[in-house]
Amino acid sequence: MPSFARSMVRCLLVTACLALLPLNAVAVDDFYRGKTIIFIVGSAPGGGYDAYSRLFANHIGEHLEGRPKVIAQNMPGAGSIRAANYLYNSARKDGTVIGMLDEAIYLNQILGTQELKADVVKFNWIGRILANSAILFARRAARVQKIGDVFDKELIVSTSGTASRLNWTVLKNALGMKFTLIQGYQGTGESLLAMQRGEVDALSMEWPVLRTMGEPLMRERKINLLLQTGIEKEADLPQIPRMIDLARNADERKLLEFFSSPSLIGRSVVAPPGLRPERVAELRRAFMATMQDPLFLGDLKRAGLEISSLPGEQLQAVVAREGDVPATLIEQARRVAGMTGR
Q1: pLDDT at 341
Q2: Sequence-separated (6 or more) residues with CB below 8 Å from residue 184
Q3: Which of 59, 114, 208, 218 is the most buried (most CB within 10 A)?
Q4: Predicted confidence (pLDDT) per residue in 73-115, tens digit
Q5: Contact between residue 310 and residue 287 where contact means Cβ atoms under 8 Å apart
Q6: Domain 134-262 maps to which CATH number in 3.60.15.30, 1.10.3720.10, 3.40.190.10, 3.40.930.10?
Q7: What number is the average pLDDT over the span 233-255?
Q8: Could you tell me which residues come within 8 angstroms of residue 154 by beta carbon, excluding any fewer than 6 positions away?
Q9: Distance between start and end Cα atoms, the chain
Q10: CA torsion, points 255, 318, 208, 50, in degrees to nearest 10?
């Protein structure tokens, strides 16, 4: 074959190979170059959401083509409903705004919370960092020393997050437990200081964070661990009951399982709806690469934190599945959560 013909064949082969590439492969490679990603934290500074969000934001940029700068920005308000509404309705839908919301955000939607102006299933769920079981704990001087005491004695609890507010409201209304809920503190940090000042008796915090932040309090026996909120028990807390263990019959167990289900979502990363599929795929790939990054894992270890990651595709299915709840259970849940009318 003449050299000219051979050159033409090579050109045709290269052209054919390029045609087989995804249409936006080059665009994906270049998209983030020179850009800044804003990572919305749906809670106040301090506490588990903030800690996981900032650690993740510090590393994901290294796993995106173009290595964009990533800036964490706190947007507390209404148990992260403010942040959810922003991500859904106002944020840029090009992959430059992502975030972390309260794990009970989809529960708000199922229960018909009017302030929520978003369809949580339509968010692009990028991946889960941690399945979460929060631990309710009380100061040593409180009248309540174990969770069973709350059937007879008042426990004043700070509820800065949606999940905690719902959990204690349900236990109060469905089981008759004597919780008094205080919602004025912004985030876990403020709530912890309020407890130490004696303004409240108790609060809840995810176990990996409490195990680190609260280690001096536990070592000095200044707090008592009362209750786990997750579906599954923490391996190193076998003696602490779960919320669902308080159920006295099958109906109560179904109800408490429903309110424990946000633990499956835990600390997850979301993006607005409407992103191009290749951008979602790129973010999910970068998420899983971050979960395996030795530098990220080293920072987690130094902070005393851990992960139980879940890929975005599986997380998206979990969110969709958890929303499939019988109408009778939803109505019962709305009643015990103190939500009347529509």
Answers
A1: 53
A2: none
A3: 208
A4: 999 988 899 999 999 999 999 999 999 999 889 888 999 999 9
A5: no
A6: 3.40.190.10
A7: 94
A8: 143, 144, 178, 179, 180
A9: 78
A10: -110
